Amino acid sequence: MNIVGTVSSSEGEAAHTPAPHAQEIVVSVVMPCLNEAMGVGKCVEKAMKAIAAMGVAGEVVVVDNGSTDDSAKIAAAAGARVIHEPRRGYGSAYLRGFAEARGKYMVMGDSDDTYDFSTIADFIKPLRDDGFDMVMGTRLKGKILPGAMPWSHRWIGNPILSGMLKLLYHTRISDSHCGMRSFTREAYERMRLQTTGMEFASEIVVNSLRAKLKIHELPITYYPRIGESKLSGLRDAWRHVRFMLMYSPSYLFQLPGILLCLLGGAAVILTAGGPRSLFGHTWDFHVLLFGALSVIMGYNLVLFDVFAKTFSMGAGFVEPKKWLRFLTNFWSLEKGLIVGGLVLLAGLGLEIKIIYDWASHGYGRLMAVRGVVIGMTAMVLGVQTMFASFLISLMLIKRR
Question: Mean of the pLDDT values across residues 231-251?
Fold first, then answer.
């Protein structure tokens, strides 16, 4: 049995057990820990026994994330290599742990005894023998013991969050927020994980899909936790939702923007020439006003979509889609200024004509509502196009 442990003593010195070369380590089990004195020792012991039963070299890395109890000492006494990460956060702890881990295969799981680390071999076999890049535990296809998960998480929170991931990223993963997972070191590097909070769990799934990893789902048993829960239901759920929306700007910006532009454009075209009768009602300039507002709002959202994707492309977060690559290659600051300037001048010209006609008729009642609305809309869209071109060019400077 080759199980590696490097633990920190209470005086801050490191006690070392004999360790093989880093390349010889096959399995690294990484656990985040924040005041888990009641459960972390059991988790470490189960993980070490499971690694020993596999007959491979391995290690258990416990990342202490600012515990004020004896969690670190207990983990070290059980044989773990304890790493101290002062930057708080679920993602921060895991990122530090994965950076310190030396195994070819990495297993992650909470240190509150909700996951059974004696089943590590089941998480390694698909990676080693079946060619999978990542294994996702699924509690929903497995067994959730009484008291292990609040009803609101089981029947509301988890289905909604998993459903959003399925909708936004077209995944068939049934339990996208199960905390016990495994992956190869190569897969971890391909995912390029960065978030530091609870949204880290969603980022793993999203980035694994973007990296086109081969994923296997493994039904597991979920146990009642030992100790006090650190989850903050609504806050943590919002962080997941926020992350998913920001990483999928098409659903957040593009789709609503296009729909608003189409509906608003139809309303403007319908009423630009005068009142129209449709569906038994007469539609007048009030519809024109709402249509113009809808076009402006929709165009703003489409621009936000372009901004978000341009930033993600320039920062290397994602590979650009064909239309965005074409846009950034074809479009330029100068072309944006010209097109936006022409639209601005067209709208300004219409407004000047309205004022001229009004003055020519003796400054009487000004009733050119339709012309004013259309002209102002064109001016707004023109100015937005010009300044959007500046911003897009600014974000692409480094890439170019």
Answer: 65
What is the domain-level CATH number for residue 53? 3.90.550.10
**DSSP per residue, 184-197:** EHHHHHHH-----S
Last-in-domain residue among 192, 226, 246: 246
Whether residue 152 sits in one domain with residue 69 = yes
Q: How far apart are CA 366 and CA 343, in angstroms?
A: 24
Looking at the whole model, is its pTM more than 0.85?
no
Within 8 A by CB and 6+ apart from 295, the residues are 260, 261, 264, 265, 268, 377, 381
* 361 and 215 within one domain: no
Residue at which a domain ends, from 220, 246, 272:
246
Q: Please count the structural domains in the chain.
A: 2
Residues with Cβ < 8 Å from 53, sequence gap 6 or more? 121
Tens of pLDDT, residues 10-47:
333 333 444 444 448 999 999 999 999 999 999 999 99
Q: Clarify whether residues 150 and 183 are in a common domain.
A: yes
Report whether 200 contacts 122 (CB < 8 A): no
* Residue 98: Cβ-neighbour burial (10 angstroms; 0-12, 13-18, 19+): buried
Q: Are residues 55 and 109 in the same domain?
A: yes
Q: What is the extent of the structural domain holding 296?
A: 249-396
Question: Are 282 and 233 within one domain?
Answer: no
Closest CA to 82 of 71, 95, 69: 71
Whether 227 has a pLDDT exceeding 80, the answer reads no
Length of the chain: 400
What confidence tens digit (pLDDT) does each residue in 345-387 have? 999 999 999 898 888 888 877 778 888 999 999 999 999 999 9
Q: What is the mean pLDDT of residues 119-124?
A: 97
Residue type, 108: M
For residues 258 and 241, membership in a common domain is answered with: no
CA angle 159, 163, 164 (to 5 degrees): 125
State residue 293 phi and psi, 5-degree precision. Answer: -60, -40
